[in-house]
Amino acid sequence: MTAPSPLRSPDRAAGRAGARLIAAILAWLAVLVLPASAHEVRPALLRLTVAGPGTYQATWKQPVVGDMAIRLIPRLSGGALDRLPDTQTVAPGFIVRGWRVVRGQPLDGQTVSVEGLSQSVTDVIVRVEGPGVSFETLLRPAAPTAVLKLSGPAGIAIPGYLTLGVEHILTGADHLMFVLGLLLLIGPSWRIIKAVSAFTVAHSLTLALAALGYIHFPSAVIEALVALSIVFVALELVPAPDAPPSLTRRHPWLIAFTFGLLHGMAFAGALAQIGLPPGAAPAALFLFNVGVEIGQLLFIAAALAVVLGLRALRRRAPFDTAALARLVPAYAIGGFACYWLIERLVTIYA
């Protein structure tokens, strides 16, 4: 029998150290090169409150990031919004502009559009409400115009909330990284179903309570805590050598549920800032949540396919890629999460 080489352990240690260095370099390059922002894609709102024929109040509510706002200009084909707004205020995370229209062209049949929307990744909810009037539609970058059909049957069109939920989760890099961290922590096994189910139940609960106004927490604090939850998961992906299994590794569903409560309140921010449609809040909330789940399942399916594909390729690699495959995602997730955490703490204390 051949005795083991005394150089094997030092070689392995050096390999692990080299893998950590390469992982850190690749992860921080990703943080520097890729846009390190999350949840800057929030819907804008154009609310038209009708008081009488040709008389209405137009309110435009556009999300901003810090002091920056993309150039989005609401338009009505009748020209009522082509002038400077009568009022303009700055709320936390939003700019609000208002126009008072008296004896103008009736809204029914007019075309509403948003200049600059097709060059953005923002959605716009258009809501018309008033005595006997109830209408809502969703403008998207691919479809930035719509006709206001107010003379049809009363009711609010809410299917757009399903699309809004799918797009919200798929453009929410922080939430996706948390889910990815869970997936990498647990691996492709039945336990991921249990953890994702716990995450779904938790964020559905706080999403409903927050969106309906039963609970309220400052959105900036919630966003910072969401970033902190991702840092926590990233640390769990790189445990200390010879450390006993942590609570997270033994019961990942419990951590998924706990942090899911935070993520649900962050999801609710996309709806609470613009409000749910009057008279149809439960249906809109349900469709938004279903959209979030559809987007989340699509992401998990894609991530699992990539993980399984990389495992197959790793067997054919000319060198040991196990350490890189484990460390690069952990460092990347942790790097982005630290960036967001610092950014959001600065926002809170600025």
Give an overview of the whole structure:
With 350 residues, the chain is of the alpha+beta class. It is built from nine helices and nine strands. It folds into two domains: 16-39 and 172-349, no CATH class; 44-157, no CATH class. It is 51% helix and 16% strand. Helix 5 packs antiparallel against helix 7. The chain is elongated.
What is the makeup of the main sheet? 6 strands, mixed
End-to-end distance, in Å? 67 Å
List low-confidence stretches.
1-15, 31-40
How would you describe the oligomerization state of the chains in this entry? single chain
Please report which band the strand proportion falls in: under 5%, 5-15%, 15-25%, 25-35%, 35-45% or over 45%: 15-25%
Our count of domains comes out at 2
Overall structural class, as computed from helix and strand content, comes to: alpha+beta
Rg value: 24 Å
Total count of helical runs of at least 4 residues: 9
